[in-house]
């Protein structure tokens, strides 16, 4: 049994396997440049300011030495000698490249198996663990929903009557149906502590902290769940009607769609009036455009044809809510698996100003599938306005109080799916900044279906999607996320950006701009995967083009009939966001200032060091201590239970996603261990030990250590719990083989 103290500060207990020994006061912290031999120290993070000793920056060194350093590095993090596990002379000269395609979900070429090679040596397994299994997390005996949240003597009506094979006896369930209460967090339910009630009811693995037995006048004793009204905030009360109260309804979680809507969607009972009308028109217009396109090769006069035969669409976009991207609004990338609600909540707390859901597939949304609708949920911190302290020209019609941080991302392979999805999302989700269309997803399954990055080679389909989505999405603006192209030898983003800003060249004077409010460009191609650095000079070229298109767009509006500025996103201005390899405030401001992008989107950098947003707002590196980093893990665990529940299912769901998070988080190399700055995300460290045991543990590549970390906050993993890391290189067997 763990004590409360152990649970809260698990690593600082003497005798603990990962105990921090000899915690030192801040004044004695390791100096970055000439640190003594490693010894255990824990203290709050230190900003890297002028007054503190700092690792040398590249600019401080003579040119020859910089070149020498770069030659030496070859993707290896420059760890100071005293932290290396082997002497510097034995450190490999090149580092293994971690391919983040595996994490993004792309089907990698068949992974090597780790079998013995020709030389008899066992090869290191690489690549992706496909078809990962996570075990089934459930109570030994199921408790019926009719009693799961009610006082013992007031069950609801059980829909299944006598045929119900779940338990209805709460006392029996608590004794035999589930494991005993957890002792982490001092046995206190983190959800109840924050919100004054717990949505997991009797199934909560901390239920003893929010239940009591009351004695009635007739002497009968009844078990009841307790609430703390002083902590219940009416404004965060779930929006699902009480009769549908279920594990879906969580305090502080927004965009929860009622089960009845999903059911109606699955039964095709929901009408998409706007889309149907628009799609009918679009079919005719596409045919007209097709004829026009084929004729113009041999007919000079044809440009007039389209204009003469053009019929206005039956409906115009509604007035759009204006959005804003600026230097003060760092953007958290959409991240499948990783970018879940608890993780985004953590990032917002640390300074992310704009967030995106994980990518949902359009068709399953239209079919009412629960998994995809669940991705659309936002935390209350995400539905507040982003920071707004503009320095340049301001849009007089932008109203920051109406803006919010959270946007959703979808992908689709056909215009009708994208358009109907946009109409459905804007109708049922009240808290949406934008609907973003993913045009960069490299995953085979998505690409081969004609969605994601396949749209990069289908510009006219893409344009029709954006135009239609913008028409039916009410006040919600539509945006797109693209890559530089599909293949390295054919970069298409520049043409595509032009098309998104202004429309196809030969018809734009008639039909106007498609209405794309912003484009994010990831500076890689699909083919490139993550092996090469993102191409920021290409991103800068596109940023310059977008600026010129924004001017053209303004003059174009003047010539198009009935162009109504209010219905054009941002009055015709398209924002442009750059993305790729941002790993510090230095990268961030460098890109904003020198590449000319409105803002920068941060992906892997945020998972490896979520405080990158804090660094951006503070404008300096922060050398986070291991204790502080562990506190982020603890927060994730709490936020996970708040979002997914503190019952067996929710807890192990939280554990699974915490482990996914740790599969990136362990890659952080504390800057206090580096010979010199800047740190580079793609640098791999040689084997090293941290400044204390906790720092060493947090750097472990072994997923069994990640499970150990999860147990500090989520209690022991159940015997049937399984976790297969996405990268085979993190598998236990492999680590053992390497000794
Ligand atoms: C684990 C993982 C999941 C991702 N999921 C998505 C996604 O759902 N939608 C998307 O547009 N991009 C996705 N991406 C790509 C990122 O949004 C981003 O474009 C890419 O990681 C480059 O940025 P970075 O160098 O800052 O990581 C994913 C990337 C990773 C590593």
TrEMBL record:
Keywords: Cytoplasm, Flavoprotein, FMN, Metal-binding, mRNA processing, NAD, NADP, Nucleus, Oxidoreductase, Repeat, tRNA processing, Zinc, Zinc-finger
Stretch list, region Disordered: 1-131
Biased composition (Low complexity): 35-57
GO molecular function, one term: tRNA-dihydrouridine47 synthase activity
Compositional bias segments (type: Basic and acidic residues): 1-12, 25-34, 58-74
Gene Ontology biological process: mRNA processing
GO CC annotation: cytoplasm; nuclear periphery
Chief location of this protein within or outside the cell: cytoplasm
InterPro entries per the UniProt record, alphabetical: Aldolase_TIM, DUS-like_FMN-bd, tRNA_hU_synthase_CS
Organism superkingdom: Eukaryota
CDD domains (alphabetical): DUS_like_FMN
Intracellular or extracellular location(s): Cytoplasm; Nucleus
Enzyme Commission number, as recorded: 1.3.1.89
Catalyzed chemical reaction(s): 5,6-dihydrouridine(47) in tRNA + NADP(+) = uridine(47) in tRNA + NADPH + H(+); 5,6-dihydrouridine(47) in tRNA + NAD(+) = uridine(47) in tRNA + NADH + H(+); a 5,6-dihydrouridine in mRNA + NAD(+) = a uridine in mRNA + NADH + H(+); a 5,6-dihydrouridine in mRNA + NADP(+) = a uridine in mRNA + NADPH + H(+)
Cofactors (names): FMN
DUS-like FMN-binding domain residues: 332-541, 576-626
Role this protein plays: Catalyzes the synthesis of dihydrouridine, a modified base found in the D-loop of most tRNAs. Specifically modifies U47 in cytoplasmic tRNAs. Catalyzes the synthesis of dihydrouridine in some mRNAs, thereby affecting their translation.
PANTHER family on file: TRNA-DIHYDROURIDINE(47) SYNTHASE [NAD(P)(+)]-LIKE
Similarity comment: family membership: Belongs to the Dus family. Dus3 subfamily.
Protein name: tRNA-dihydrouridine(47) synthase [NAD(P)(+)]
Source species of the chain: Sordaria macrospora (strain ATCC MYA-333 / DSM 997 / K(L3346) / K-hell)
């Amino acid at each position: 049994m763990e004590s409360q103290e152990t649970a809260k500060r698990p690593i600082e207990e003497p005798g603990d396997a990962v105990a921090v020994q000899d915690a030192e006061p801040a004044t004695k912290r390791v100096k970055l440049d000439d640190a003594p031999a490693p010894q255990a120290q824990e203290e709050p993070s230190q900003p890297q300011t002028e007054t503190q000793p700092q690792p040398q920056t590249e600019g401080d060194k003579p040119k020859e030495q910089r070149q020498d350093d770069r030659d030496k590095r070859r993707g290896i993090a420059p760890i100071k000698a005293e932290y290396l596990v082997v002497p510097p002379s034995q450190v490999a000269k090149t580092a293994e490249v971690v391919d983040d395609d595996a994490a993004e979900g792309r089907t990698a070429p068949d992974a090597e198996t780790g079998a013995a090679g020709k030389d008899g040596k066992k090869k290191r397994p690489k690549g992706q663990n496909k078809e990962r299994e996570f075990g089934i997390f459930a109570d030994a005996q199921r408790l019926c929903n009719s009693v799961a949240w009610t006082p013992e003597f007031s069950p609801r009506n059980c829909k299944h009557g006598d045929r119900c094979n779940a338990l209805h006896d709460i006392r029996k369930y608590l004794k035999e149906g589930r494991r005993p209460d957890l002792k982490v967090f001092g046995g206190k339910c983190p959800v109840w502590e924050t919100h004054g009630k717990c949505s997991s009811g009797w199934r909560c693995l901390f239920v003893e902290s929010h239940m009591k037995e009351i004695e009635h006048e007739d002497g009968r004793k009844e078990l009841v769940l307790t609430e703390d009204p002083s902590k219940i905030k009416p404004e965060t009360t779930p929006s699902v009607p009480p009769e549908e109260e279920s594990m879906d309804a969580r305090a502080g979680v927004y965009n929860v769609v009622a089960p009845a809507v999903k059911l109606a969607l699955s039964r095709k009972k929901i009408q998409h009036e706007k889309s149907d009308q628009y799609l009918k028109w679009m079919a005719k217009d596409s045919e007209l455009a097709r004829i026009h396109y084929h004729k113009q090769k041999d007919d000079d006069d044809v440009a007039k044809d389209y204009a003469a035969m053009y019929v206005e669409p039956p409906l115009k976009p509604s007035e759009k809510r204006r959005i804003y991207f600026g230097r003060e609004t760092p953007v958290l990338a959409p991240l499948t698996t990783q970018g879940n609600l608890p993780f985004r909540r953590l990032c917002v707390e640390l300074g992310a100003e704009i967030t995106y859901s994980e990518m949902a597939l359009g068709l399953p949304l239209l079919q009412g599938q629960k998994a995809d609708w669940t991705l659309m949920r936002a935390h209350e911190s995400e539905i507040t306005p982003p920071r707004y302290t503009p320095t340049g020209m301001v849009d007089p019609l932008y109203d920051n109080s109406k803006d919010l941080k959270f946007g959703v991302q979808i992908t689709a392979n056909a215009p009708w799916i994208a358009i109907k999805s946009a109409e459905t999302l804007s109708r049922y989700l009240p808290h949406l900044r934008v609907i973003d269309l993913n045009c960069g997803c490299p995953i085979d399954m998505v690409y081969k279906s004609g969605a994601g990055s396949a749209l990069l080679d289908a510009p006219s389909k893409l344009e029709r999607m954006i135009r239609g989505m913008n028409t039916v999405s009410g006040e919600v603006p539509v945006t797109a996320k693209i890559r530089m192209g599909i293949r390295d030898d054919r970069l298409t983003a520049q043409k595509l950006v032009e098309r998104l800003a202004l429309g196809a060249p030969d018809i734009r004077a008639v039909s106007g701009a498609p209405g794309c409010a912003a484009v994010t460009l990831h500076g890689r191609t699909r083919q490139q995967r993550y092996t090469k650095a993102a191409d920021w000079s290409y991103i800068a070229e596109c940023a310059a083009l977008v600026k010129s298109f924004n001017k053209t767009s303004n003059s174009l509006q003047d010539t198009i009939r009935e162009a109504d500025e209010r219905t054009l996103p941002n009055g015709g201005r398209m924002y442009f966001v750059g993305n790729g390899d941002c790993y510090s405030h230095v990268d961030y401001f460098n890109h904003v200032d020198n590449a000319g992008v409105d803002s920068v989107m941060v992906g892997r950098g945020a998972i490896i060091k979520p405080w990158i947003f804090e660094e951006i707002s503070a404008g300096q590196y922060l050398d986070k201590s291991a204790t502080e980093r562990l506190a982020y893990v603890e927060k994730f665990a709490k936020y996970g239970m708040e979002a997914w529940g503190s019952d067996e299912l929710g807890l192990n769901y939280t554990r699974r996603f915490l482990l996914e998070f740790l599969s990136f988080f362990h890659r952080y190399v504390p800057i206090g261990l580096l010979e010199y700055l800047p740190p580079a995300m793609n640098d791999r460290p040689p084997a090293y030990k941290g400044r204390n045991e906790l720092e060493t543990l947090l750097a472990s590549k072994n997923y069994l250590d990640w499970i150990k970390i999860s147990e500090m906050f989520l209690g022991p993993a159940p015997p049937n719990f399984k976790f297969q890391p996405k990268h085979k290189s993190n598998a236990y067997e492999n680590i053992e083989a390497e000794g």
